[in-house]
Amino acid sequence: MSDFEELVRSRKAWIAEVLQPWCRAASLLALKQAELEWPDIAGKVAPEKTLWPWAWSRFPELVHETLGIEETLEVEVTLKSGQKVKGYPDSRASQQGRLVLWGTETPDAPARELGPFSIEAITSVHRLG
Question: Which long-range contacts (CB under 8 A, 24 or more apart) does 38-43 make?
Fold first, then answer.
């Protein structure tokens, strides 16, 4: 690399082509390990603004491109066990690869906190409505 601009392009390409795809596919254990070393891996960016939104982006209907977990739209989460859970994601309560929803288990039940559900236990997320 001969100049600064080339270095910057290289770093941006590595983030887009290597780091973000890794976050979308990594296990919860690997994500937690990466969080501990995130400043060394990704630079001076907070893991809650990069690592975790990138990890959750493996479920595109769950995340907003710049805000992270989308709270304003109801979702149906399918777990590896086959269980389906409906509710509104709570981004503040959803920490370190664990999703928390605000919803009901049955139509006549009062709304309450559901989860947390590990990122590894989720097979799909679909927006409702």
Answer: 42/15
